[in-house]
Structures are given as C-alpha cells and as structure tokens.
Amino acid sequence: MYKYLLSSVFLWNTLYACDFCGCSPSSMNTDILSVQPQSSAGSSVQYRNFKHVVTDINVKRTQIVTQTFFISYAPKKWVDLRLSLPIMWVFNNYIKIDENTPKLKEKKSGISDLTLFSNFRVWQKAPLGRKTGHVINLGYGMSFPTGSKKSSVNDLLQDFNFGTQAVGFLFSATYSLSIKKWGVVNSALVKINMKNKDNVRYGNQYSYKITGNYTTYVKKVALIPVAGIGVNIEQKNVHNDILQTKSGAWILATDFGLQCIIKSFTVAASVSQPMAQKTSGGDILQKTGFNFLVKYQIARKPRKAEMPSNMVMPKTGTVTPKK
Hints:
By secondary structure, this protein is mainly beta. It has one helix and 22 strands.
C-alpha cells in the first residue's frame, strides 16, 4: 500500500491559479507536488467555472479548460525532474445589452507557461512492521514566459494572457504519513512571480493542502478514494507600480475523487468544491471544478548485481555456488 500512497497525490495536489485582472487569465496547472520521485508521462485536464457577480464589461460567465502535458525523469530513487506545458481554452459568455453588443460568446486558446521542476526526497522512514511510514520531500522549480497572448473581440476587455509573460520561481514541501491502508499528505507551495516586459508583476501564490486517502484492491487493481481540503492565496497584481484592486484571490476548497492504478497506468478523477472565497474583490465567484488525469509510470531498469566468478544466478532468484 505504501508505494500507492506515494503516487496517489499525483492528481490531488494539482495547483491552479486564475488571474482576473481585466479578465486576463493566467494559469499554472502541473503535477509538481506529487510525492514519489518517478519517471512518467501523461496528461491532465482541468475545468474551472467562474460567475461574474459584478462586471463593467458585460461578462456574465467565464469557463476555463486547461490540458497539461507532462513528463518526468528519475535518474535516482530520491530525485526526479519534471517538465510540464499547459494549453488553455477560455470561454466568455456576455450579457446582451442591445443590438450593438459584441459576440455573446467568445473562445480563445493558447499555450501557458512552461514549468521545469525538481522533486527531492530528503527523508524517508520505512514502514514499521509494515504499518507506518513517513516521507518528507522538498521541491524547487521555475516557470518560463512561453505563454501566448490574444486580443478580445470586446474592446472593453484587456488582452488574454495565457501565462505571466515572466519568469517565476516555485518552492514546495510535502510530508506524507501512511498507516496500514490509510494515508495523509500535507503539502505547501509558494510561487514567486517576476515583472514582465509590460511592467506587470502578477501576484505571488501561496497554497496549503491536507489530503487523506484509503487503498483497497479489486483483484490486481488498486482503488484509492481521496478527500482533501486546502487554501490557495493569490496576491494582487501590480502594473506600473499601481496595485490592481480587482485582481487577487483567496479560496478554501474541498476535493473528492477516486484514483485507479492498473499495472503502470493511473487514471484519476476528482471534483473541487469551493467552501469560502474572495476572487477579484468579491466580483467573481469560483464554482465547482473538475479534474481528470491519465499517467503512465515508466519502470526503472534493475541494475545487475555484481557476483563472484564462482557464483551463478538460477531462475528462482537465489544465489548458489558452483559445484
């Protein structure tokens, strides 16, 4: 069960940030907080829904779909390197005011910021009597200004920024505890943003989450129901040294989901439900969100053990001397 606990947080610690400064979204959606260093490849899809309670740009609803492609490589058992690239689709629905209202629906898509992250297992205590295990991980990474920029058909809107257009720095810490078939994961992440060429600095991001899971088996398939609660805080943006009052957010949300592991494949789905929040000064409400992930874990090649010249390795895996 312990190895499944380590891999089970792959989806549930996914982080998402949406910046609504003038309806200009930027996102960071990656698997940087998964605990177990591993070589893998896969993709995740995230859906977020926003209701505009107060608006001066006649937008009533924004939907964002983010698909992230990721790959990781673990040269050692205690470290891996992770590369992820999100692609975003933004859908805006407008309030019809008169016949001169711009298109009632608008769709834009673009590439977001590329993220390179390193995950280090700094301390591990093996399960005692196969009951209890502990792992502490630390991580560091950078995001790069690969995000695209699109203009809106509504002249009142600012441009869509699918990323910060600047370099960012990420730091994470994770502590996981397993007790028999139960597991608890505590994770924290900080993202520091730099100014971009337009002299805009997107607000730094701070996140903490605690997740519980239980592992059961149906034949050779591992089923892991997961539940968690977390808080995500995004500071306000600064443009030309002027604080953007309608930016920034904080949200307290719960997650519920199920993960299925079949051999080297992982399939997971979850629902995120806001419990308390304040987005864009209270002008926007984040609604129920959904997550889906598919991952293939690449097995490590076993290293050949060195043996004395008078020893042979039979098929049973035991070492016997030559007669």
